[in-house]
Write a structure and sequence with these properties.
It comes from Panicum virgatum. The protein is of the alpha+beta class. It has three helices and four strands. The model has no long low-confidence stretch (mean pLDDT 85).
Length: 140
């Protein structure tokens, strides 16, 4: 079966398409500076740490004034296991009753959110790197 239309038959539709496309406002994605990229990264990592601390507070039944509040990030490591499993380790400080405490958290990143594997309040005798960081040669 041969078609009965010609390429020139599409000219009118093609011109209408081009006119429609040219009338739409162009949104150009702005490139971020190095400083902006670092800020976006740091903000995302802080959200991960805050999520971990929120989970810790919930698991320990700490709410309101009795809960810990995020203060600042201390260290961050990116861990890869096998071909596809990866996660982040964080050390950060949080405050409770005017006292600063050190925490460890392990999270599995998922875009803007994360799954919290664990979040632990570190004790004075907790020292050194975790097994995952040692195995991966992560810098402390």
């Amino acid at each position: 079966n041969l078609t009965e239309w010609r390429l020139s038959d599409l000219k009118k539709d093609f011109i209408m398409h081009l006119e429609d496309e040219s009338s739409r406002p162009r949104t150009r994605e702005r490139k971020h500076s190095k400083e902006e990229k670092m800020k976006l990264h740091n903000d995302l990592m802080e959200r991960y740490m805050r999520s971990a601390l929120k989970k810790y507070n919930a698991e320990e039944s700490l709410d309101g004034d009795s809960g810990f509040e995020f203060v600042k990030a201390i260290k961050e490591s990116f861990i890869v296991e096998g071909a596809v499993k990866f996660y982040r380790h964080f050390n950060f400080t949080a405050m409770r009753a005017s006292t600063i405490h050190l925490f460890f958290a392990e999270v599995i990143p998922d875009g803007e959110s994360c799954d919290v594997s664990c979040c632990r309040l570190l004790q004075d005798n907790d020292n050194g790197r975790c097994l995952g960081c040692k195995n991966q040669g992560a810098l402390t």
